[in-house]
Amino acid sequence: MLKRLKEVSCLAAPIVAGNLAHNLVSLVDTWMVGRLPGAIALDSVAALGAASSVFLVVFLVFSAITTGVQVLVARRVGEGRKEEAGAVLTNALVLGLVVSIPATVVAFLLPGFVIPLFVDDAVTRDLAIGFLDGRLGAGLAALLLLFVIKGFLWGTAHVRLDLITGLVLNGLNLLLNWMFIFGNLGAPALGVRGAGIASALAAWLTLLWLLMMLMRGHWRKTYALFRARDLGRDIMKRVAKLSWPRALQGLAFSHSMMFFAIIGANTGKLGLAASNVVWRLAGLTVVINMSIGAAAATMVGQALGRGDPEYARQSARAAGLLGSSVTFVLALPAWFASEATTAFFLDNAEAAALAGPCLALTMAFQIPDAVGIIYSRALTGAGDVRYVAFTEIIVAWMICLPATWFFVRTFTPGSELLGAWSGWAVYCTAWMFAMLLRWRHGAWRSIRV
After folding, report:
1. For the chain: N or C, fewer Cβ within 10 A?
2. Three-state SS for 359?
3. pLDDT tens readout for residues 218-275
4. How distant is the alpha carbon of residue 33 from its chain centre?
């Protein structure tokens, strides 16, 4: 077990760092718009809270292609067929370009339709739509292609380049945010809308840089990248077959928008602003555990490609132990200094006071969530993508939302926000049990991709 734990840690560490860098894009957006002058700061943070749930659903749906690419590439590398792994990337990039055309059209239209459904305040609504117009409308195509390349890097275990990519993206976003939010270096001061534009520009520039890296001789020689003769419907169909359940799972996560709608209806602008900070901070542990899960998925996929399911089982167990331990350590500040932690991101004392208890509760239940996330990724790495997707639908819509509504209604006046996040805690626990039971069943051992 110690050997597997070390292997998982070595593979997961660069993925964790890279994904944290990617996640910091959203956290930096929140922190920087929170420093805008006057009342616009609270409106802007509340707008990001509303926009974040929409962006997260879109992110999860279109990042599904990462799963399809990673699963196929890891299995082919395990089988010793590296040129076929490279062909997966080539075909997936073409597939991503095709999908990005209608996706961009939808991304321009979606915010104006969805945001008014759960944001009543006109100022918050307009700011959220402005942010998403830039973040999604202008940047979704670049994100989609970055997801494709990420799946290839994870599947081949070349995770250091993914780490560097995350650092490049975050550095560019920080600079461009400073320019377009506050109007520096001759750029217009666009506030929260500028944060969306900055993130989109950062994604495009990072994509161009990453493609230049992959054009180097080592990559093209080892994996035979970008050969026109490798293009074919069969590989694209395989990528799509493994990706669509993950996209459906991401769509099921649209329950997060309903979750925020319940919060907005019962706690107003203060509750949305407070929940945005809780969402961002808890999201850090989610990103870490998704990263550890990605390492587990690669190890499981490559092990099954070699015909070694026992190695796959040990890898998943070690990853689960690592993730729950790291989450426990990260949760400690939230338990003992929750209000001080949230106050760092919220200048409004009332909003910070609301967010503190919710953060403490949410971080406690991030531990079972960690186990659920990691084992879901291990199942995905084995190709058991449909079970994971349909279970997400059941847990999100049939357990999380009813529990959230129930607790909001039964908690004492003034504690409705804590009631809402109690519903999220139920969701995390149910997700963990569903993934553990499936893994113990063992059907994943015989799945072919």
Report:
1. N
2. helix
3. 888 899 999 989 998 999 999 999 999 988 888 877 777 678 777 777 777 777 778 7
4. 21
